[in-house]
């Protein structure tokens, strides 16, 4: 399949290939779930957006888990990764029908979710793309053109400013509007929503001051206060103690030259800031282990 050859390997696997501009319905993704890729059949970003019938109870495990845990996991490896909404667990591409207003809703929801993490996730660390899913009998020659339709041209700019209801599983005005459109026979395009967390780059200017004193990537907890880590295609929740030892391990692996430089700066700071001596000394001792 042609578009898979162009598939961008996002989430840390930098590739010179350009990202796919469309998917074909019911085809399989060219990779499985792994350290960098997660498939979701739905678009419930946060726990409060999960419909009640999908949530865990005292007796049953939830049938659906929010996308948030996976994004948190990709942040905490520092390696990044992509969640594909509209792709089943086995990699089958089904897509999610979305009007422009519903796409806006997803973008606002994501921004809101990232602001609820601790620490909050700045906009330069994530990205969202809506990749159209075309019927597999679409003639090859028409695919690029169909995929490049900009649905922003089809909507009312004033209406787009209407506030969306974000932290709820209830229908928003954009969902009601979509229902009216289906009922009137309007064909609404399906998409795979690709939400990417970018790999942590300790030397990027935008990241300065966000990490710790060595500028290792920050560890985030999600909107439920949980700290998720991704290992292969699975998520783990670590205790604070485990995170502390992981961070020490990463710190030891950082380039010695950076540690030396930081220690010289810390030594200089110690002389200038006697009140904060203890804190800075502890940090310096960790770095020299
Ligand atoms: Zn909405």
TrEMBL record:
<dbReference type="InterPro" id="IPR007421">
    <property type="entry name" value="Schlafen_AlbA_2_dom"/>
</dbReference>
<keyword id="KW-0175">Coiled coil</keyword>
<feature type="coiled-coil region">
    <location>
        <begin position="259"/>
        <end position="286"/>
    </location>
</feature>
<feature type="domain" description="Schlafen AlbA-2">
    <location>
        <begin position="35"/>
        <end position="121"/>
    </location>
</feature>
<dbReference type="InterPro" id="IPR038461">
    <property type="entry name" value="Schlafen_AlbA_2_dom_sf"/>
</dbReference>
<dbReference type="Pfam" id="PF04326">
    <property type="entry name" value="SLFN_AlbA_2"/>
</dbReference>
<dbReference type="InterPro" id="IPR029684">
    <property type="entry name" value="Schlafen"/>
</dbReference>
<protein>
    <recommendedName>
        <fullName>Schlafen AlbA-2 domain-containing protein</fullName>
    </recommendedName>
</protein>
